[in-house]
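Journal club prep — side note

Before the paper discussion, L.F. wants everyone to see what a predicted structure for a comparable chain looks like in token form. Sequence:
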Amino acid sequence: MKKQLRRDWRNWIDKIASDAKKAVRTDNMKAVFDARRQLCSKPNRRTDSVRSKDGILLTKEEEVKKRWKERFAAVLNRPPPTRSEVESEACEALERGPVTHAEIRSAIQHIENGKAGGVDGVTTELMKADLETTVDVLYELLLKIWESERVSNDWRCGLIIRLPKKGKLMECRNWRGTLLHVALESIRQSDDHRNWGHC
């Protein structure tokens, strides 16, 4: 029995190593790092159950999903900030107008590689693969948004991924959420570079 387990373990490691070699040949660095993570990292701390607000342990999938929806709705859905919270006197003199090609290019270049794509499946690497085309497409899109003052409903959606913090993982407050949406990240970075870098 122990010999079979060792053999299975060795086969699993060999398969991951061979997949990593193929990924290196095709220049797929994400797959290489995923293989390294599988071989070298501790297993993820995961939980399929969570406690309700009343402290009752929820184990059914629908109950757990409903609890996470409640949690992130409470944490993430806040009223929009007032004008005084958003703008300060120091930022009043900033240039106002549509975003430029240079700002979009700079924002895309500053987004870290290896991030997961959002609902649309667009990754940072995909946006950087043909930077000029991406800049041109985003410029036209952002110009329409600027002129109409309306953002598409698709851009208001994203994937919320749970990330554990320290503490008991059955309690929602010991998790934080992160929103995956690369296109919005590039716009946010562009806006941050434009506004807050000069304040």
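L.F.'s comment for the group: The mean pLDDT is 77. Keep this in mind when we get to the figures.
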